[in-house]
Amino acid sequence: MNEELAFRRCEEITRSRARNFYYGIRLLPGRKRRAMCAVYAFARRVDDIGDGSLPGEEKLARLEEARRGLDQIDPDSTDLLLAALGHALVNFAMPLDAFRDLIDGVEMDARGTTYETFSDLEPYCRRVAGSIGRLSVGVFGTSDQAAMQLADDLGVAMQLTNILRDVKEDASRSRVYLPREDLERFGCGEDPSSASVHPMGSLIRFEARRARSWFERGLPLITLLDPRSASCVAAMTGIYLRLLRRIEEKPDRVLLERVSLPSWEKAWVAARSLTAATAVGPRAVTARGMNGGARRDRSGTTARHAGSGTEVGR
User: Fold this and answer.
1) How far is CA 203 from CA 107, 189, 259, in A?
2) What pLDDT, on a 0 to 100 scale, did the predictor assign at position 227?
3) DSSP-derived secondary structure letter, 103
4) Which residue intervals of the chain bear CATH 1.10.600.10?
5) DSSP string covering the chain, please?
6) How far apart are the C-alpha atoms of 87 and 37, rounded to whole Å?
7) What is the rounded average pLDDT for all residues in the chain?
8) pLDDT by residue (tens digit) across 212-267?
9) Alpha-carbon distance 132 to 139, whole Å?
C-alpha cells in the first residue's frame, strides 16, 4: 500500500475526529506525527465500534475482527490503517499489546460493565486510555523505564476527565462510569443524569480532585522526553487540565451539555507548550505550562488539590 496514501488517510481521521489530541500531535516532527496519527486512527476505529448503535453481540464480533487485524499489520496491507501502522513500526517500537488492551476495554463497554468502586474502574481507564499513552511513548522514544507507567497514569487522568465531561452523553447511552459507591456516598442515586444539582456538584468536584491527583502523578513524563515530544504531551495535558478546571468551576454544566474549550484556547495552549519546551526545555513545561490547570483562591495563591487515597475514564 502506498505509504503516503495510508498516512494521509490517518491524518485526515485525526484532524477531523481528535478534538483535543490533534493540537498536541501536530507539534511533532513529521515522522512521529504520522505515526501518532496512525495510532489514533486505529484507536478511533475501535472506539467507534463501542460507541455505535449495533447490538452488543455484534459489537463484540466487530471488536474481535479488529483484534485479528492486529496480526495483519503490514506496510503492504490493503487496509489503509493497518498499512500505516506497518510503516510506523519500521521506525518506532510501539507496544502493540496496548491495542489489545484498548479492545479489551471497549469490550467492557459492549458488555455494559458497571463499576462498584474506583478500584474496579481503574483497570478500564488503563485499558482505554493508558494504552494510548503507552503507544505514544513508543513513538516518542525514551530509554527511561518509568515512562510507560507515567504515560499510563496520565491516561487514567485524561479518562477520568472524559468521564466527567461526558456524564450527559453517556447517560443517553445508558452508561454510568462513576463508581456506584461514590454515587451513593454523595446521595446521587444510580443515575447521575437525574440526580439533584447540589449533591451531583459535590460528587463532580470530588472526582475532579481525584483526576487532578492522577495528572500530578503522570506529568513527570514530560521531563523524560525530547522537547518536541514534551510539547505534544504538554499541549494535550494542558488542554485537559483547563477542561477539568471548567468542570470544577461549574459542575452542574455536565448535566446539561458536553463541556469543551474553544479552538482558539486549545491552539494557545499548544503554542505555549511548544515555546516552553523548545526554548527553555521540558522541565520548564511542567513548571510553567501545567500551572494553567491549577485554580487560584481569592487571595491569588495557587490552590493544590490533595488526591484521595485511590484515584479515578472513558
Assistant:
1) 27, 11, 17
2) 94
3) H
4) 114-314
5) --HHHHHHHHHHHHHHH-TTHHHHHTTS-HHHHHHHHHHHHHHHHHHHHHHSSS-HHHHHHHHHHHHHHGGG--TT-SSHHHHHHHHHHHH----THHHHHHHHHHHHHHTT---SSHHHHHHHHIIIIIHHHHHHHHHH----THHHHHHHHHHHHHHHHHHHHTHHHHHHTT---S-HHHHHHTT--S-GGGS-HHHHHHHHHHHHHHHHHHHHHHGGGGGGS-HHHHHHHHHHHHHHHHHHHHHHHSGGGGGTS-----HHHHHHHHHHHHHHHHHT-HHHHHHTGGGGGSEE-TTSPEEPPPPPSS----
6) 12
7) 89
8) 999 999 999 999 999 999 999 999 999 999 999 999 999 989 988 899 999 999 99
9) 11
Beta strand pairing call for 302-303 and 295-296:
antiparallel
Rounded to an integer, what is the distance from CA 125 to the centroid of its chain?
A: 9
Distance CA 187, CA 184 (A): 5
> Rounded to an integer, what distance in angstroms lies between the CA atom of residue 277 and that of residue 116?
40
Q: How far is CA 278 from the centre of its chain?
A: 24
Residue 242 has phi, psi (to 5 degrees) of: -65, -40
CATH superfamily of 114-314: Farnesyl Diphosphate Synthase (1.10.600.10)
Range 67-84 average pLDDT: 97
Q: Which residues pair with 105 in a beta bridge?
A: none
For the record, the C-alpha cell of 263 comes out as: 479552538
Residues 212, 305 contacting (CB under 8 angstroms): yes
Decide if 119 contacts 310 (C-beta within 8 A).
yes
**SS3 of residue 225 by DSSP:** coil
Q: In this model, does residue 309 exceed pLDDT 60?
A: no
pLDDT at 285 (0 to 100): 62
